[in-house]
Amino acid sequence: MVHFVDGESPQKYRDTEPILNTRCRLVSDIYWPGPGKTLQQSWKLVRIELLPSTFDDRGVATLDQRLTCFLVDDCVAVDAGSIGIALSDEQRSKVRDIIVTHPHMDHIASLPIFIDDLYPTLQEPLRVYATQEVVDLLERDVFNWNVYPRFSDLKNDYGPVMEYVPIPIGRPFSVAHLNVIAVPVNHIVPTVGLIVSDGQTSIAFSSDTAETEEFWKLVNAVKHLDALLIEASFPNGMAKLAEVSRHFTPATLGQELKKLTHNGMDIMAVHIKPSYRAEIIKQLDELRIPNLRAMEPGKIYNW
Residue 28: which domain range? Predict the structure, then answer.
């Protein structure tokens, strides 16, 4: 749908072509600018969905988040926990780029199933972006011919079906139409947090972490931050377990957010353990931090 504002004439834009993101989706919502704005400033390109991972007896997605996979602009995935069970057919046809922040099962569980399902029809390889440490762990522990085939060695009728793209630390790299920077965070396995940007909108992903420093240096250095997606795994009463497993509780998250120098962005709590969801959300609300709320699986967020 095209929206005209501030008296702009449709005739003026009659011959304008739709915008297509390379290897990505057609941008269907284009907001035409009013006086003093450029068209580029008015595009709303970044769409993020936390894919659902739990479904009720009618097949309807619930708010319980057991697996982690964020879908960006319907074509790039950040982590792959539920990628093999929650994508629509249209999304499955578009996702060819997957960033894996770390190799814990809830972040990669259905990645092998996703590749397996697409195996005969892939006309280009699925690209799995990860640090070399994580690539080595995926090859050793998952794609090892015992748990699942080593897809990086296999071809279908069109060519290779999967390839690894080792990512640098602290330096920008491209994923489809996005620019990404990765830095280590404080988890019990090699893990990175991310800044993901389309050139106008910037979103920070903490991945799984406890108290950390490099991530905040990166986040605070970003000129403008639109949203922060940050974990809050356990309730305050389970602080010891959160500490040894290197996760946040609402209390430790509240302390950690004091390191953030940006103001006004949305802060979305994710990785909330389903058994404690209501308790964790109540404790997050009690922090009274502006714009902090729990992210809902299956809901579309636009920034």
Answer: 1-44
